What we know:
Elongation Factor Tu (Ef-tu), domain 3, mitochondrion inner membrane, 8-stranded antiparallel sheet, alpha+beta, Rossmann fold, 6 domains, 16 helices, 29% helix, 6-stranded mixed sheet, GTPase activity, GTP binding, EF-4
Amino acid sequence: xxxxxxxxxxxxxxxxxxxxxxxxxxxxxxxxxxxxxxxxxxxxxxxxxxxxxxxxxxxxxxxxxxxxxxxxxxxxxxxxxxxxxxxxxxxxxxxxxxxxxxxxxxxxxxxxxxxxxxxxxxxxxxxxxxxxxxxxxxxxxxxxxxxxxxxxxxxxxxxxxxxxxxxxxxxxxxxxxxxxxxxxxxxxxxxxxxxxxxxxxxxxxxxxxxxxxxxxxxxxxxxxxxxxxxxxxxxxxxxxxxxxxxxxxxxxxxxxxxxxxxxxxxxxxxxxxxxxxxxxxxxxxxxxxxxxxxxxxxxxxxxxxxxxxxxxxxxxxxxxxxxxxxxxxxxxxxxxxxxxxxxxxxxxxxxxxxxxxxxxxxxxxxxxxxxxxxxxxxxxxxxxxxxxxxxxxxxxxxxxxxxxxxxxxxxxxxxxxxxxxxxxxxxxxxxxxxxxxxxxxxxxxxxxxxxxxxxxxxxxxxxxxxxxxxxxxxxxxxxxxxxxxxxxxxxxxxxxxxxxxxxxxxxxxxxxxxxxxxxxxxxxxxxxxxxxxxxxxxxxxxxxxxxxxxxxxxxxxxxxxxxxxxxxxxxxxxxxxxxxxxxxxxxxxxxxxxxxxxxxxxxxxxxxxxxxxxxxxxxxxxxxxxxxxxxxxxxxxxxxxxxxxxx
Length: 647
């Protein structure tokens, strides 16, 4: 009878709005009922033996976020058929289809009539965000190594495997996307065995998109992964392994409780800063925040304690109760920035807003280093360090989307080391070796004894038919081959020693172009080596412009100098005098281009007479231009610097 009356309603505007409101309320009720169905479980009573902390690691676009969605659905954390990639909360993540920020979710799973608490951490796959992976693994006892059944083992798969293997974590190999037409699970299983010595019977085969095999993954998490080695008795010890900023609550810290317990209202203290805080809120992420009154050892939770400064939430710090003396937990190795770029406001009136945005965003991304910098052309700004080019792009995009800032970002550079010749002042100050990330700070050649540039070990996995062009690209970028390994009949893994400065700009794009998108690339730090580096400067009518200088290898200086002066000739506007654009190293001119002056025809009004009148006027014009060249300042618009520095 109710349904008959419901369908007899005439669909005018008012009724339609009421139905939409009722449907919305019903959806909210269902979602809350579904997500809160496990709230009656007292998770503090779950013994440590039934807790599992794990991460999902994989190469880019192998299905990490999709698998996380299925795990959330199968354990009742979210409603089936809802929003995809529920853990990718940032706008930039949804636009680019990549995971940028590691996210956590606490799941309840029933196995053999017993409740288990599974703490899931979904990690990024791109090499530039390996810092997020490293932090996540510090709170885990095992990982799911996810591999695409269609693409097979990729470069970041190899890097993530050895990262987990080096942390003594249990690894569950899982093959995803077995439903695809070109999937070849047997071939990929053979790759896993030849590269990592993983036996075929250990590999799980699933389709995260269709939900095939998800129960076997959950069962493997319970049966294969160990429980955390923690003690619920004793003083509180908690590892702070991530943080975020909320404009209403300040800094929110994500912690892994290693020992003891933590309750709302207790006073905690940082081992590093020694600052004291009162715990205002505690919550589990399921994946929405679920307030709780207590966190116990073995669990991962979110703490709100009125931290207001980004310098207070130090990732890797140990949290303990105020007044108790405890030994700090071993943190994890922080990853140092490898690529540096200058960030300046579009207008100096926006300096304060941009500074506030950078402070809040660096709290969410502790891998970014910040130093104050200034430029005569661009004004006051900052020199920021990133883990790679994608990291830089995502950071600038988040500045724009989340805080409305529109900064000027200069071309990226790397950090060099210079050994200075011994002088009395250097010996006194102890500055025999200095680090430089800004070309304007490069010492004079007569002060340099030896220079060093950063190197990386690059891993490239490619089909063998692209081997020739890829090897040529690596040799062009001053690469030295380490080894080559056949993964299977048509795929090969190459390892090269490469200078970091040669790969930060366009190496990845070139690699994808010559391999039709099939090659994958990953790199890891390999220290510094001695190299013949020089500072290439730019002269405009013999006046040095420090903002346009760069540090290059001596063998590349000629080529790069020619490209730079040609570009400057195109974008510097013509003026009343001739402008000579020169690229120089030391006192040697490598390349030159002339920007012709505007020509005024001073003889246009002459209509005849002696030719000496014409010569006299032309001679006066030439003398005037000569005088102007001696006293005139070349006006280079700010947009010109922006255009050059961005490239």
